[in-house]
Amino acid sequence: xxxxxxxxxxxESLKAHxxxxxxxxxxxxxxxxxxxxxxxxxxxxxxxxxxxxTTAYMAFxxxxxxxxxxxxxxxxxxxxxxxxxxxxxxxxxxxPVLTITGQIFDHQIGLGIGALHEIPDQLGxxxxxxKWTQNIPTPEDAPVIMQEAFRQLTTGRPRPxxxxxxxxxxxxxxxxxxDDATTANNAEIDDDAIDRxxxxxxxxxxxxxxxxGGAQDAGDAIRQLAEDLQxxxxxxxxxxxxxxxxxxxxxxxxxxxxxxxQADAVLAVGTRFERPMLDWGMDDDIKVVRIDIDPEELExxxxxxxxxxxxxxxxxxxxxxxxSRYNTPRKSRTDDIAVVHEQVAEExxxxxxxQASINEVIRQELPDDGVYVGDITQVAAFGDIGFPVYQxxxxxxxxxxxxxxxxxxxxxxxxxxxxxxxxxxxNGDGGFLYTQPELATAKQHGINLVAIxxxxxxxGNVKAIQRTRYGGREIASxxxxxxxxxxxxxFGIAGRRxxxxxxxxEAIREGFSLNEPMLIDYPTAPMPMVRQLSRGKxxx
Length: 540
Prior knowledge:
This protein has 540 residues and is an alpha/beta fold. α2 (31-39) links the parallel β2 (21-24) and β3 (45-48).
């Protein structure tokens, strides 16, 4: 046992679980915890931000790129509420984000006396976007509760976890002991279900594989299974890069939309599977096999022929091994899918300008292992279906939350997780100003990413909808912006302006060569909306 304060017990628990960086914003209820952080600076890096939303967005970006737990630290009440938008994004993307927050003093809880940062039932409030929440009542309880927090984060469906501790307990000494920081394994896989799935896929004439973000770490097994079945692999935006886009069977949603009518069986892994079920269409001619760590997800929309509860790497690996028993030699589909690739490229080039040319330059300049973080903007919307991705965990989006303004802060955390690899942040002018004060965070902590602002002086998506669906009746969609070039200079970072794809190429190259962050202002006219290209019923 050791004499530790509650704050020190939390810090030692983080270290025991391999955490070496936290994203944090201090405040009076957190003073004792931050004093513990100061004592641990040799082994635990603290990156402090200018807004609580950024602590959780950075933790989210870090988790998405590394696959490890991202840790956010915020004051209670308004601090936790400020972080809630980011936690909702992490919830949507099944991201292991741990948020540590404070409380009011224990003797004040529940009295409604207006204590600083008081929120009635704080954990109950945040529980709607958290997998698990818990108060840590004593320093002695910290190791056990933190171990359970990490078990929740690393087993089953990963989603945000929130723990709280009151300021008095953070400063109170206790006799604290630590057990080995181990977590339970996920449940055994139903062998009979694996066998039934293998028979179904092995007998299919045109099987396809459909991947979501839950399959991010199953790439090798996916590739083996796809090649054995000669199955096109359709990747949602959250699943981009699981199979390299250089592989002849790899497809984005746009390519998937073009082959969906031919499929007679589909293996859906780590995905809500809502696009085929609700948009593309289903009928009796297609049989569905699903693999998901969350048993509730398997039958949320419809009951599949075979449902397998498993983490994706192990589930797909066992299925790939079993399929060989039932699969017959298949004719290569490389030429057929190459035709689909050509159709996709032609459609994107014709209907997706200038986004196509812009993304082509970004792809050429971003190394294969570089990270692309797209905010809710038309350049990134194109990226979801048209930006080639070559490695897992190198393409980051906001999932179904579509959280406008999440991108730059998330990219900062992604760059921290990526280390020496390059990160590029894709923003519209509207979304970028949500978190632009974090340029100071990038400068102060040496987070040397390249951020691009595509500047059309509008909430572009909103304005486009008003123009096309509401007879041009525009309201609250035009923006008055700062001079982004001067803004970069004001924050003491590199700034450039690019007005063509080739000028953008030069600016990106320069940014990647510098040992500092860079902000690129790219003035642009309104861009076409491309999301609809991968939508519409094709069967059923």
